[in-house]
């Protein structure tokens, strides 16, 4: 992880320097002093580049002042419009632009200390790299940036504000690591073992194997798992942070963890099947969230539960037309073995509400390709039986830029999963299939306040963004941390 330091304002003497400049403001303070030391070269360079401090705009100057390798001017827009997300994007963009520098000093003049922490947070998130299997990468191809120093008037407040943000970043990195791992490495067993590492943060971790789940009656989850030689696992993670204030019911987050999804006998096309290593991104987000909440010592009680299976083709695989009995006692006709995530969630969600009587349940799943058709990769789909919970999630999405779009639920969609021989079938036709999948899941929440986040389009990105490099996004960790922080801590 990027090394971050905060210090008082002073004109930098060496290395790369970043000046955060507001829109249409004159160079003053340290920026003015550096411009004067450059003989006016910085101001002339900004004028030539047409730089006026517009949000997200940059101008890079090479060695304008003796001792400095580069000066990067970064526009933060109008100070009246400045918010955390703008500063996070600034930090991330700076880390990407100056990745070839060993050390960078960011001059955050005029920015309050607590706000400046978000610059370092954004830079940290953008610096993530999954390279553990690159054995022949040339040194010159690797980013050199190892640390940043943020200069701010109140460095003490900045340091204090960065502590919980760093904990969330560590949870995000854990989630990205899990989602990036190849499926031959990250089996359900290995993923469950990695959850055990959260005990170092004070999280209570319980792992259930096939014997325990069979005894409980997890017919839906075990049906998905039966085609693989890799044994399934369910992991229950508990963070008890409320202490003596334990008056509220716990918050429960549930993740779909299909460590590889071949589609089973309803096998997927070969093209793109390699992407199905990240069909466990919902579980990865829940694990990262638990690490983030425990790491920053969130003052609330939270339970994270993940159902971990591999969906494979074999002589023992579940067949289209099979009927399984879920933990709830409801029977399911499995018409398509590639609609497996909802089967895993069916058992885990019923277990969650029965075992913990939660204030609410939120599940995350890379559930349907249909949600990508509907929303692209800009929003995840939100389905909920509770308007208050839905509104809180939508607001948290806007605050963190992990955006949601609420989708409908209704009896007409529910009728689509009526089965001729069982209580329900696991698919209901092509049209509205993301909604129908949500209707299926809703049958297993027993009227508890619940939200289903279909993150199939947002769990992985094919391009860099300001604070997320190409690859696993850890979508949901920041969103749900914000939900908890804003509404459910004492």
TrEMBL record:
Pfam family, one: Peptidase_M17_N
Active site: 268, 342
Catalytic activity: Release of an N-terminal amino acid, preferentially leucine, but not glutamic or aspartic acids; Release of an N-terminal amino acid, Xaa-|-Yaa-, in which Xaa is preferably Leu, but may be other amino acids including Pro although not Arg or Lys, and Yaa may be Pro. Amino acid amides and methyl esters are also readily hydrolyzed, but rates on arylamides are exceedingly low
One record GO biological process: proteolysis
Alphabetized Gene3D superfamilies for the sequence: Leucine Aminopeptidase, subunit E, domain 1, Zn peptidases
Ligand binding (Mn(2+) 2): 256, 261, 279, 340
GO annotation, cellular component aspect: cytoplasm
Cofactor binding description: Binds 2 manganese ions per subunit.
Chain residues that bind Mn(2+) 1: 261, 338, 340
EC number: 3.4.11.1, 3.4.11.10
Compartmental location: Cytoplasm
Keywords, alphabetical: Aminopeptidase, Cytoplasm, Hydrolase, Manganese, Metal-binding, Protease
Leading EC class: hydrolase
InterPro entries, per database record: Leucine_aapep/pepB, Macro_dom-like, Peptidase_M17_C, Peptidase_M17_leu_NH2_pept, Peptidase_M17_N
Cofactor or coenzyme needed: Mn(2+)
SUPFAM superfamilies in alphabetical order: Macro domain-like, Zn-dependent exopeptidases
Job of this protein: Presumably involved in the processing and regular turnover of intracellular proteins. Catalyzes the removal of unsubstituted N-terminal amino acids from various peptides.
Family, as annotated: Belongs to the peptidase M17 family.
Name of the protein this chain belongs to: Probable cytosol aminopeptidase
Naturally occurring in which organism (per UniProt): Acidisoma silvae
Record gene name: pepA
């Amino acid at each position: 992880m990027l090394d971050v330091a905060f210090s008082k304002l002073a004109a930098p003497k060496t290395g790369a320097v970043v000046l955060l400049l507001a829109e249409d403001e004159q160079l003053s303070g340290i920026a003015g002093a550096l411009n004067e030391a450059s003989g006016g070269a910085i101001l002339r360079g900004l004028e030539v580049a047409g730089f006026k401090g517009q949000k997200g705009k940059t101008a890079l100057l090479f060695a304008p002042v003796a001792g400095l390798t580069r000066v990067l001017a970064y526009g933060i827009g109008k100070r009246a419009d400045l918010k955390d997300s703008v500063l996070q994007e600034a930090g991330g963009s700076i880390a990407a632009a100056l990745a070839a520098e060993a050390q960078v000093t960011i001059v955050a003049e005029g920015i309050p200390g607590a706000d400046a922490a978000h610059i370092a947070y954004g830079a940290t998130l953008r610096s993530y790299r999954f390279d553990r299997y690159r054995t022949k990468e040339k040194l010159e191809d690797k980013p050199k940036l190892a640390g940043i120093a943020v200069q701010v008037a109140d460095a003490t407040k900045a340091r204090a504000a960065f502590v919980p943000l760093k904990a969330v970043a560590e949870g995000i990195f854990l989630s990205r690591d899990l989602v990036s791992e190849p499926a031959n490495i990250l089996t359900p067993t290995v993923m469950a073992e990695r959850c055990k590492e959260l005990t170092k943060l004070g999280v209570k971790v319980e792992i259930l194997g096939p014997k325990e789940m069979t005894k409980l009656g997890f017919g839906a989850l075990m049906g998905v798992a039966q085609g693989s030689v890799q044994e399934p696992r369910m992991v229950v993670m508990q963070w008890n942070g409320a202490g003596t204030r334990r008056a509220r019911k716990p918050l429960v987050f549930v993740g779909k963890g299909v460590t590889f999804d071949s589609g089973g006998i309803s096998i997927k096309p070969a093209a793109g099947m390699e992407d199905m290593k990240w069909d466990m991104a919902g579980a990865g987000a829940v694990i990262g969230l638990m690490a983030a909440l425990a790491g920053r010592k969130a003052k609330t009680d939270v339970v994270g539960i993940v159902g971990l299976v591999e969906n494979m083709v074999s002589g023992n695989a579940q067949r289209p037309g099979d009927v399984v009995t879920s933990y709830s006692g409801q029977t399911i006709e499995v018409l398509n073995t590639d609609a497996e995530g909802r089967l895993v969630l069916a058992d885990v969600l019923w277990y969650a509400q029965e075992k913990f009587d939660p204030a609410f349940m939120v599940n995350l799943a890379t559930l349907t390709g249909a949600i990508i058709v509907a929303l692209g990769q800009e929003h995840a789909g939100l389905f909920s039986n509770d308007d208050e919970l839905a509104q809180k999630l939508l607001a948290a999405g806007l605050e963190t830029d992990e955006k949601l779009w609420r989708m409908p639920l209704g009896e007409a969609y529910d009728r689509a999963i009526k089965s001729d021989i069982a209580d329900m079938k696991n698919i209901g036709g092509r049209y509205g299939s993301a909604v129908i999948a949500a209707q299926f899941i809703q049958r297993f929440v027993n009227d508890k306040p619940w939200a289903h986040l279909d993150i199939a389009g947002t769990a992985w990105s094919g391009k860099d963004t300001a604070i997320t490099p190409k690859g696993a996004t850890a979508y949901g960790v920041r969103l749900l941390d914000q939900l908890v922080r804003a509404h459910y801590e004492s």
